[in-house]
Amino acid sequence: MTTQMLWPAIQEGLRKGVRGTLWMLKILVPCSLLTFLIDASGLLNQLDFMLAPAMGFLSLPPEAALPLTVGLLAGIYGAVAALAVLDFSMTETILIAVFLLISHNIIQEGLVQARSGLNFFNATIVRLVASVVTVLCLARVLPSGEGTDAATAAAASPDVTSFSVQLQGWLGDTGVLCLKIFVILTAMMVIMELMRAARVIPLLARLLRPVLWLMGLSHRVGILWLTAAVFGLTYGAAVIVEEARAETFEKEEIERLQLSIGINHALIEDGAIFMALGIPAIWLWGPRLAAALVAVHIYRLWTIWQLRRRGETPGETVPKPVSRSG
User: Fold this and answer.
1) How would you write 15-47 as a 3-class SS string?
2) pTM
């Protein structure tokens, strides 16, 4: 890459980093303030009896219902804001993060998937089931959320703290979180712009063929998978929809792709946002990759079983192009 290409890519990455951070803060700061006010009011404690059964099933405290609901409906940034305010152990934070990395912004992203080859309800149900099953599995592996973290937090906080002191603490914590997000997001944007300028993505798609095979995906959907993996379902929506329509893919190829990227997308940006909370990288990428792999192979086995029930041999069916409607 020449200097003439390098500097404009860095500038564009910096511009996108600043613009993205400012846009994110419009969501993050109000959500964080609302969460702080709800927590300070004691409302969550009054709702414990309603939230405890569902959250307990996921090995989480009742307070986890707030960031989970925000993340499911509004997206990652509001959920991170809520997580930064409430007191969770690292294990609980990891479980919440993994759930939301798989199932966030569920309505908007479900509509994107519906436009590019997978039924909205199927896409939504698969993501929610994958979130629940992955969290249940992780809860058996990770150390209990109760213990050192909770005890330390309790010891460090007095029983009664004035509202003004709590507000000052919120302002400081939120300021530090915003700074971390700015640094991480801007660095990610610069790297992505350099990759785009160097036309690395098509090359990576070819190099990733063994990974695609392992994940149960056709090599023909490599560009689409990488687009979603790097840019996410929302940002990469136009590319995903147009490429899916322009190419004559088999219906099963697109459905397998959509199952995979529904569970496992925006690997760089979403993971980087949660890293600002101190979560180790292995828990931000490993569980999602494993969940996507398992979901796609279960779908493949189910498809083969369906074909054999009808007396057909896998591979003998005539390719069915993806519908261009919608």
Assistant:
1) HHHHHHHHHHHHHHHHHHHHHHHHHHHCHHHHC
2) 0.74
